[in-house]
Design brief:
The protein has three domains: 39 residues, no CATH class; 110 residues; 204 residues, Intergrase catalytic core (hpI Integrase, Chain A, Orthogonal Bundle). A hairpin with a 5-residue loop joins strand 6 and strand 7. 49% of the residues lie in helices and 11% in strands. By secondary structure, it is mainly alpha-helical.
């Protein structure tokens, strides 16, 4: 028998394995009805490979990025995870009809065999990506309905609350150590160009700690996104101005456009004093010679140099630019800022703050209970 399947643009052919014409007609009729039932149920007759599904999924996500719904950085993350890990595990040329409920039952074990230092958060994110791929596959006819994400079995990650992965941040002493180092560090460039780069990165760092922006969000700022507010405040020494800043985060970032309120608006004013590119359409953090964005390599190279200069390169912590965002959240929580308002300002969920910054609550409690006490040289708490 043969019949044209319009939905898939192919001709279906099958031997009925009989020489009897009437029997052949009956078998052909049964097979035709079965094909139509599968098609109406959303199942494909001609299965595709996992590689074809992943390619279609990435193309779909790229269209979302082009429309400004997700960032280009998110596309890069999806592409790497789906092709380097998920496709490797399943097999690029595996037919989709061969994937069943138990296909991903060993995924976490396999991932740890491939990279023993893979974090639990990464495994959870990759599971979410697999679910997104399969949801897309069912919706667009690559997969059968019974292959929906809810039917897939994953191993269970038994993570106790005390084992939630802490995010590395600077404590007050480490931040002071870095801050006091800036004055000498910015003058140690090999030439005038690098000295200018060091000024930009010094102020980039200070603003990350005072706004909570992500690395990519801060790097993509243009002057049109900045609005500075000044409030006069009297101090014992005299009159001074306290500046804050309102930042419109660009759409092509991780969580899309949002408005962020931060401290140290005076830092943007300082940047304008040494930057040669301060028009509304110019990048805030730029190459002073060309006006283009500072290259990521410059950030990472000078960050490593700064950590070495201020004595933080040998710490057991994994201190990166992203640690500065966590430093901001930690400092704000210790200052008594509402987690709800903090979540809104940083573009994250209250749940994420509760899970990853639970240690702040106990730290704050310890400080409150011991604020009238002092420590002697041996570290023992003494009553005043």
């Amino acid at each position: 028998m043969s019949c044209w399947l319009r939905q898939e643009g192919k001709c279906y052919r099958r031997s009925l394995r009989t020489r009897n014409l009437e029997e052949a007609k009956e078998l052909a009729r049964e097979q035709y009805f079965k094909l139509q039932a599968d098609i109406r149920a959303g199942n494909r007759v001609f299965t595709k490979t996992f590689k074809e599904l992943v390619t279609a999924f990435i193309e779909h996500k790229q269209q979302e990025a082009n429309a400004g719904l997700i960032s280009q950085g998110r596309i890069q993350t999806i592409t790497i995870a789906s092709r380097k890990w998920i496709s490797k595990f399943v097999g690029e040329n595996t037919n989709l009809d061969k994937i069943g409920r138990h296909t991903f039952e060993r995924y976490y074990i396999w991932r740890r065999e491939q990279a023993s230092d893979v974090r639990n958060a990464t495994l959870i994110n990759e599971r979410a990506l697999i679910s997104s791929i399969f949801k897309f596959g069912v919706a667009h006819g690559f997969l059968r309905v019974d292959q929906s994400p809810s039917n897939l079995i994953f191993p269970r990650l038994n993570i106790k609350k005390s084992q939630v992965e802490r995010r590395d941040e600077l404590d007050f002493k480490e931040w002071e150590q870095m801050y006091r180092c800036f004055r000498r560090w910015v003058t140690k460039g090999k030439d005038d160009k690098e000295n200018a780069q060091r000024k930009f990165i010094r102020d980039f760092i200070i603003l990350l700690v005072n706004t909570g922006l992500r690395f990519g969000e801060m790097r993509k700022l243009k002057w049109s996104s900045i609005k500075i507010f000044k409030d006069k405040k009297l101090y014992k020494q005299g009159e001074a101005e306290k500046t804050s800043v309102e930042i419109r985060v660009p759409e092509d970032t991780k969580t899309g456009a949002r408005t962020v309120v931060g401290r140290r608006g005076d830092i943007f004013e300082r940047i304008k004093n040494y930057s040669k590119h301060t028009k509304s359409s110019d990048w805030v953090f730029c190459d002073n010679e060309t006006g283009e964005q500072l290259h990521k390599k410059v950030y990472y190279k000078l960050w490593a140099d700064l950590l070495k200069e201020c004595g933080l390169s040998e710490t057991s912590k994994n201190i990166s630019f992203y640690s500065l965002r966590h430093t901001y959240i930690t400092f704000r929580l210790l200052s008594g800022v509402s987690p709800f308002m903090l979540a809104e300002n940083t573009g994250t969920s209250i749940r994420m703050i509760e899970v990853h910054y639970a240690h702040i609550k106990s730290e704050h409690l310890r400080r409150e209970l011991t604020k009238d006490m002092v420590r002697d040289e041996a570290g023992q708490i003494l009553i005043d």
